[in-house]
Amino acid sequence: MISVCMATYEGEKFITRQLDSIVDQLAETDEIIIVDDQSKDNTVSLIKKRQDPRIKLQVNPSNLGPILSFEKAIQLAQGDYLFLADQDDIWFPNKVEKVMEVFKTEQAELVVHDAKVVDGDLEMIHPSWNHWNHNYIGPSMFRTIAKNGYTGCMMAFTKSLKDKIIPFPSMIEMHDQWIGMTAILQKCQIIELNEALMDYVRHGENATAIKKRSLSDKVKGRLCTLEALEIAKKRVN
Question: Where is the Glycosyltransferase 2-like domain (predicted)?
Fold first, then answer.
């Protein structure tokens, strides 16, 4: 069983096309867990309008932010394999098939694939997000902490890894980096799939839009990451 975990907020411009790109790749027994973070636009009504029993919608009682919303979606997921999804991207038709093939043939516990970077009009910015952003995906904890190369919407993982990452530490800045760090410490089989399997949409409304940070914010973030690392170490079997 596959669980797609998504957090939504003010996503009425994008949610229909993203769900269109996902649903046909799933079996009737799979599920899409959507946690909406108090959207004031038509996001929730557009999701409900689909009347797809595989879509399970939860609306937060108050605004929690993307990290806690993703944590809730992951907690609610019942699948053996969990795919993370952002509301505004577009999956390629072979994404699920390609990732599941890696899980089965490589005994992977975490699969990280590539994506084509596009703008809000879906015009290509770069054919490879991992090359464009100089992402490192692998077993080096030092490199993962120095510069996070794990991008949530390009990640899928097993239930066994889910059980290690939940609950999220309260101080983490990025849930994807936390998942990557935990997978490294747990000595999980991490497979990088060097193939673009989705359009990764970059625009000013993204929660993950690239923003310049002050030096003090960078130092604070690094300290929080090191604190989270100590929590991850305590969860090693």
Answer: 3-160
